[in-house]
Design brief:
mainly beta, 5-stranded mixed sheet, flat
Length: 704
């Protein structure tokens, strides 16, 4: 201890000896290392001062300088040392060149300035150009969320989402699910196999001074799933029908979770439901019954959908006497034979009182009654299950009825008139084909049985009679037809019976060779049939259009294709026997009747000029007997007007004045001079009932 004290004294004396000289070189090469969320290691290369003071400021650069002669208090915990200026804290003041800065905020930038000075006491600071640096602390902010659509035990699938933010790298995450299970990964899923309130913790490894775990303030609620267990209290699940009464109890279990309660539903069928924990039930009918049971967990009195469904069966044993059967409770006296039986299984005793003094202890009893009347039968039975019961039933013995009838022949013709049948006992019902009340209507040929049933309330009776419906001797003379080109039609009647034709002929075979109406009938044992056929005659059609031809402009060509009792079809869509053609083309006609179809065609070509007239270009009225007149001729034309004009427009000839259509080259009785003359010529052409008018103009040369 003494050596140490002497060393410290000498060290302080040495330091004090440097006080008089202000440093001239600042520190340099600041290095910030081992940065965490709340601390960092700061080191540097010292200047020539004996000591150095470190100022640290949050978020912005150090903006003040230490004052000479002022001794500041330093702490490595940020904010604990002297404040210089505003928010500039002294975090180090010593002669060494490294320290660990603590007390920092995560994800925050800090600025450093280092000032050299000459020692402690009344320091003299070098304030010009201090060494500066800045750094940012690491960030680790925990956050997480979870979601699920099903919060029930076993069927849940909780999705955990890591929403933490950090500047750290290489972290590994561990999830603690609160049920004793854990998983690793950034985002995870987990299925809870038990119910409860689960606290969720997220752990980050190697946090470098940062918080390493986070527990979410809201736990995961996993609703426990019930285990349904409905029972019959006394375990008496099979009871006799008489006095049956079942008592049920709910023994369902579920995990004890705060705010969770159980709601149960008993469903007995037919809309009979209850939520009571311990219901009871009486059944109105024997049988095996299934009780459906569902339990559901309520959380804070709200349905959760966490259910468990099961069922249990009970059996109501029928009364042993309920299996009684009777073959027919109402029978006729003459043939009555009642069979009583009890088909209920597992019976150990039987007792029958038959109502006429007779009894039996057999399972099945056959009995006939000697007189008509009503009889009360009492039956008592017991089962091996300890159930017994008595049933009472009534049987009736009725007098016989008479179901005979008359009026049905042994045979009838198909489609004959209806036959009225007369029963001995009215009020019954005829059955079989084609009945209308008591009237029988013969239908399709065949053998038939007609039944008459007297529907007595207790003792019906019936009678059946056979009859035959005989087929009509159907035949056909065929469809109405046409005999072509003096042809014939052969008819052969193959129906059985006697044949009679309209002409008295009785042959089955006949050749028809003339137009007319023919009929025949066939009589087969009184059943008759007839048919009629109409015969017409026709000749195969002919058509003969003219040869291909050339016609002049404006001409009309008449085409005819008539044939008796025939249909005509032209290629232009007309169905007339005659058409008028005014345009060039190929025209086809088809003539048809039942005896045949024939076609022909003609091609019409039209010339563009008026070729139906001939106009001379010159004439010579010189009295030599040749070419003395200017005359226009044509095929089938009728002139209606001719006028001639000289070159000055003077009309030198007019057919209306001259009453003719030939010009002799004179005007007013005097010869006209040689030269060209103009003419106008009008005419008409008549083709059948059509009339066509036309006019032409031109010039003619007069030469003498």
């Amino acid at each position: 201890m003494r050596v140490t004290g002497i060393f410290l004294f000498l060290f302080l004396m040495a330091v004090g000896s440097l006080h008089a000289a202000e440093p001239t070189t600042q520190a340099s090469n600041i290095v910030v290392s081992q940065i965490s969320c709340t601390s960092a290691r700061i080191s540097w290369t010292s200047g020539n001062g004996a000591w150095r003071l470190v100022l640290v400021k949050e978020a912005s650069a150090v903006d003040t300088m230490p004052k000479d002669g002022t001794k500041y208090t330093s702490f490595a915990t940020f904010g604990s040392g002297s404040e210089v200026g505003t928010k500039n804290y002294v975090c180090f003041d010593n002669f060494t060149n490294t320290f660990t800065l603590s007390g920092l905020k995560n994800n925050t930038t800090y600025h450093i300035a280092i000032f050299e000075h000459d020692g402690f006491g009344s320091p003299d600071y070098l304030t010009a150009s201090p060494a500066t640096a800045s750094f940012k602390t690491l960030d680790l902010k925990f956050d997480l969320s979870f979601s699920y659509t099903d919060s029930c035990q076993n069927t849940n699938n909780v999705v955990f989402t890591n929403k933490s933010s950090t500047s750290l790298t290489g972290l590994k995450w561990t999830w603690l699910f609160g049920d004793g299970n854990q998983d690793t990964g950034f985002n995870v899923n987990h299925v809870y196999t038990k119910g409860g309130v689960m606290s969720i913790t997220l752990i980050a490894n190697s946090p470098v001074g940062c918080p390493n775990s986070y527990t979410h303030p809201k736990p995961v609620l996993i609703v426990p799933r019930p285990v349904s267990n409905p029972v019959e209290k006394t375990n008496d699940t099979a009871q006799c029908f008489q006095g049956n009464h079942f008592f049920f109890q709910d023994n369902t279990t579920f995990a004890n979770v705060p705010k969770c309660a159980l709601q149960r539903t008993w469903d007995f069928g037919g809309g009979d439901q209850t939520t009571f924990p311990s219901p009871d039930k009486k059944y109105a009918n024997p049988g095996k019954y299934r009780i459906f049971y569902q339990s559901e967990i309520l959380y804070n009195n709200q349905k959760t959908g966490c259910t468990d469904t099961t069922s249990l069966y009970v059996r109501v044993i029928p009364d042993p006497s309920s299996g009684v059967s009777i073959n027919n409770p109402v029978q006729c006296l003459s043939v009555n034979s009642f069979v009583f039986d009890n088909n209920y299984p597992g019976l150990v005793s039987y007792s029958w009182k038959l109502g006429d003094g007779n009894t039996s202890s057999n399972k099945s009893v056959t009995h006939s009654y000697a007189t008509t009347g009503n009889y009360m039968v009492i039956h008592t039975a017991a089962s091996a299950e300890g159930c017994s019961s008595t049933d009472t039933m009534f049987v009736m013995v009725k007098p016989n009825t008479n179901a005979s009838f008359s009026g049905l022949p042994a045979s009838l013709c198909e489609k004959a008139a209806q036959v009225t049948l007369t029963p001995v006992t009215p009020g019954g019902l005829f059955t079989g084909a084609n009945f209308n009340g008591n009237n029988y209507i013969p239908g399709v040929p065949g053998n038939y049985v007609v039944k008459y049933l007297v529907k007595d309330s207790f003792c019906p009776d019936s009678t059946t009679v056979a009859t035959v419906v005989q087929a009509l001797p159907r035949f056909s003379l065929g469809k109405d037809t046409v005999l072509c080109n003096l042809g014939t039609k052969t008819v052969n009647i193959t129906a059985p019976g006697s044949v009679l034709w309209e002409n008295g002929n009785t042959s089955n075979f006949r050749i028809l060779n003339a137009a007319g109406t023919y009929w025949a009938t066939v009589d087969d044992g009184g059943c008759t049939w007839g048919d009629t056929i109409n015969i017409t005659e026709a000749i195969s059609p002919l058509v003969n259009l003219p040869a291909d031809t050339l016609v002049c402009k404006g001409a009309v060509v008449r085409l005819s294709a008539f044939w008796p009792n025939s249909q005509v079809s032209w290629s232009n869509g007309s169905s007339d026997t005659m058409i008028y053609v005014t345009g060039a083309g190929t025209y086809t006609v088809t003539v048809s009747n039942p005896c045949g179809v024939v076609s022909d065609q003609v091609t019409i070509r039209y010339q563009g000029e008026n070729c139906d007239v001939f106009v001379p270009t010159a004439f010579t009225p010189n009295v030599d007997g040749r070419n003395e007149y200017f005359s226009i001729t044509g095929r089938g034309i009728t002139p209606t007007m001719l006028r001639i004009y000289d070159r000055w427009g003077i009309k030198v000839f007019d057919s209306d004045v001259s009453k003719g259509y030939d010009w002799n080259g004179e005007y007013n009785g005097k010869p006209c001079p040689d030269g060209m003359y103009s003419y106008v010529f009008s005419y008409q052409i008549i083709a059948g009932s059509l009339k066509r008018k036309n006019s032409i103009r031109g010039t003619v040369l007069l030469m003498r």
